[in-house]
Design brief:
alpha/beta; 8-stranded parallel β-sheet; 9 helices; binds pyridoxal-5'-phosphate
């Protein structure tokens, strides 16, 4: 068994255990394999082990991998979005998790309209209010949702966050909880374009179990699956 395959079994076991602890169904949680800076041969091992969803941060690197890996795989864009790259993102990804401003949403919509393609997006929230981090502030989320609701080819699947880093996942838990609260408040507001429950993409290698306990529906795991990144 490959190292990736062994790591995957551990992670899936942890996801199941965290779900059980939280009284949730493990099938409601998707694992995004974060493969930035991981060589394509290792992604191939991951596919052989059963991984079907990859998350990439850097467009060109992602395009090189998408071109050689067999379909059907789902690719999530999880990096910073430059608006001049939205055409290629719209063309090549199934899900974009890092929409945090109206300009990017409208740019994606324009290209998706040409492609006649529907796309699921997550709105990235700067839940820790960190000046260096991307993401919309919680109080500006309503306006962003309003703007996205005018985009016929975008569907808000949920919210995404990268809380302030701590080696202790218990320190991150309150941020996950704030994200869940935020989602529930928005769901209760009957906003245009929001139907049903909002997903929550949160939790990385160090804290995905805690994120699941707090309501994550998507966890984005890199290092725990692929090992330390080389650079
Ligand atoms: C790199 C990255 C991850 C995965 O981080 P790990 O700690 O390696 O699991 C998740 N989400 C985003 C947005 C990232 O950039």
């Amino acid at each position: 068994m490959s190292q990736v395959s062994e790591n995957l079994q551990v992670i899936l076991g942890n996801i199941a255990a965290a779900s059980l602890k939280a009284g949730r169904d493990w099938r409601d949680i998707s694992l995004v394999a974060v493969s930035k800076r991981v060589p394509v041969a290792v992604l191939q091992e991951a596919v052989a082990a059963g991984v079907r969803i990859f998350g990439e941060n850097y467009l060109q690197e992602a395009l090189d991998k998408i071109a050689v890996l067999p379909q059907p795989l789902a690719w999530h864009f999880i990096g910073r979005i430059q608006s001049n790259k939205t055409r290629e993102i719209a063309e090549n990804f199934q899900v974009v998790e890092t929409v945090d401003r109206v300009k990017v949403a409208f740019a994606l919509e324009k290209h998706l309209g040409v492609l006649k393609k529907q796309m699921q997006i997550y709105l990235q929230v700067n839940i820790g209010r960190e000046s260096q981090k991307a993401g919309v502030l919680p109080e500006d989320l309503g306006d962003l949702i309003e703007a996205v609701s005018q985009c016929a080819h975008l569907r808000v699947a949920g919210l995404m966050a990268m809380p302030p880093y701590s080696p202790d996942p218990e320190e991150t838990r309150p941020y996950f909880r704030q994200m869940k609260d935020l989602a529930e408040v928005l769901e209760g507001k009957n906003l245009p374009g929001l139907t049903g429950k909002l997903g929550l993409s949160m939790g990385m290698s160090g804290d995905y179990q805690v994120a699941i306990e707090e309501g994550a529906t998507v966890v984005r795991v890199g290092t725990a699956l692929f090992g330390e990144r080389l650079y």
